C-alpha cells in the first residue's frame, strides 16, 4: 500500500497535468515527485501516468486510483483534525485518582506548582478532577478508565499498569501525648505491635498494606500482623481517634508531621521494622506516560523532586 505522501503526489499530478507543476504545488522537487510516482507504480504493479508532449497524463487506471486517493486524503484530514482535538483535550483536562496520603499531602502542592509554571510559560493550565480514595480504588479507577492517572502508596501494584516512583514516605507508630508508650524509653518490638489493638485504615488502603508488607519483610507470620481495634476510612479520622484515645496507630509521616512537631502526637520507635515506602504514579499504556496533561504533570513532579 502506498503511503499518504505518495497518494498526495498522484492527486497533484491529476490536478496540475505535469510533474513540475505537481512538485511546485506540494513543495517538492520534480525529481522527488518522479521518484514517488515510480515507487507507487512499483508497489501497485499498475502504470499510473505517462509523459506526453503537453506534460504528464494519468492512465485510465491512474484516474481511478487518483479518485480513491482523494477520498483517502479527505478521510486522513478528518482523522488528523480529530486527533488534534483529542490532543488538545488531553492537555486541557486530567482525571486523577489518588490515595489519600498523596491526594491530601502532596498533590495540592504539585498542582499549584504546575499551574504556576503554565502561567509563566503562557500555556493553559489543565482542568483537574481529583478523587481522593484508597490505593485499591485508585488502581481500579485507572484500569477501568475512570482516571487518566493514579497515585498509590501500596507496596505492590497489579500487572497491566505502568508505574513511576514520584515520592518517598515512611510510616510511623504514633500515640497521644498521654499514652504510656510516649514515656517509654525502650523500643517497641514488632511482636508487641502486632499484638496491640490499633486504630487502622481500612483493608485495601496503602497504609494498611504497607504495614503488613513491613511485617512480612521482617519474617513475621502474615496472619498475625495487625490487630484492628477499629477501622477508619481516612487518615484524618485515624488521627482524630488517636488524639482522643489511648490507642496507637501506624500512619504516614506526611500526615502527622505537624502533630509530631508540636507534640500533639508522639512517635514510638520500632527499629526492627522497615517502614519506608515508595509512592507511585500509575497509568495504562506504554512505558512513557500518555502525552498531554498526564505527561506534563509527571514531568513537572520529577523536576520538583530533583
TrEMBL record:
Is Transcription among this UniProt entry's keywords?
Answer: yes
* Keywords tagged on the record: DNA-binding, Transcription, Transcription regulation
An example of a GO molecular function for this protein is: DNA-binding transcription factor activity
Report the residue ranges that make up the HTH lysR-type domain in this protein. 2-59
Looking up InterPro entries in the UniProt record yields: LysR_HTH_N, LysR_subst-bd, WH-like_DNA-bd_sf, WH_DNA-bd_sf
* Family per similarity comment: Belongs to the LysR transcriptional regulatory family.
Q: What is this protein called?
A: DNA-binding transcriptional LysR family regulator
Species of origin: Mycolicibacterium fluoranthenivorans
Amino acid at each position: 500500500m502506498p503511503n499518504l505522501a505518495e497518494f498526495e503526489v498522484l492527486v497533484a499530478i491529476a490536478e496540475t497535468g505535469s510533474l513540475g507543476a505537481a512538485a511546485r504545488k506540494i513543495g517538492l522537487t520534480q525529481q522527488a515527485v518522479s521518484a514517488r510516482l515510480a515507487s507507487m507504480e512499483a508497489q501497485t504493479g499498475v502504470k499510473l501516468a505517462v509523459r506526453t508532449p503537453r506534460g504528464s497524463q494519468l492512465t485510465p487506471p491512474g484516474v481511478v486510483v487518483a479518485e480513491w486517493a482523494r477520498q483517502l486524503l479527505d478521510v486522513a484530514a478528518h482523522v488528523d483534525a480529530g486527533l488534534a482535538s483529542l490532543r488538545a483535550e488531553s492537555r486541557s483536562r486530567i482525571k486523577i485518582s489518588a490515595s489519600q496520603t498523596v491526594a491530601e499531602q502532596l498533590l495540592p502542592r504539585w498542582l499549584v506548582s504546575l499551574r504556576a509554571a503554565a502561567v509563566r510559560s503562557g500555556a493553559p493550565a489543565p482542568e483537574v478532577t481529583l478523587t481522593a480514595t484508597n490505593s485499591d480504588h485508585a488502581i481500579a479507577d485507572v484500569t477501568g478508565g475512570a482516571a487518566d492517572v493514579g497515585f498509590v502508596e501500596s507496596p505492590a501494584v497489579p500487572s497491566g499498569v505502568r508505574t513511576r516512583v514520584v515520592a518517598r514516605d515512611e510510616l510511623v507508630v504514633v500515640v497521644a501525648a498521654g499514652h504510656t508508650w510516649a514515656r517509654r524509653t525502650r523500643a517497641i518490638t514488632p511482636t508487641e505491635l502486632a499484638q496491640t489493638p490499633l486504630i487502622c485504615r481500612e483493608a485495601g488502603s496503602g497504609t494498611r498494606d504497607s504495614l503488613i508488607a513491613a511485617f512480612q519483610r521482617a519474617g513475621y507470620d502474615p496472619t498475625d500482623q495487625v490487630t484492628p481495634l477499629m477501622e477508619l476510612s481516612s487518615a484524618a479520622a485515624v488521627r482524630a481517634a488517636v488524639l482522643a484515645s489511648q490507642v496507637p496507630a501506624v500512619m504516614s509521616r506526611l500526615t502527622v508531621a505537624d502533630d509530631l512537631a508540636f507534640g500533639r502526637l508522639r512517635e514510638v520507635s520500632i527499629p526492627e521494622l522497615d517502614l519506608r515506602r515508595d509512592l507511585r504514579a500509575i497509568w495504562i499504556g506504554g512505558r512513557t506516560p500518555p502525552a498531554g496533561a498526564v505527561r506534563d504533570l509527571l514531568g513537572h513532579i520529577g523536576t520538583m523532586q530533583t
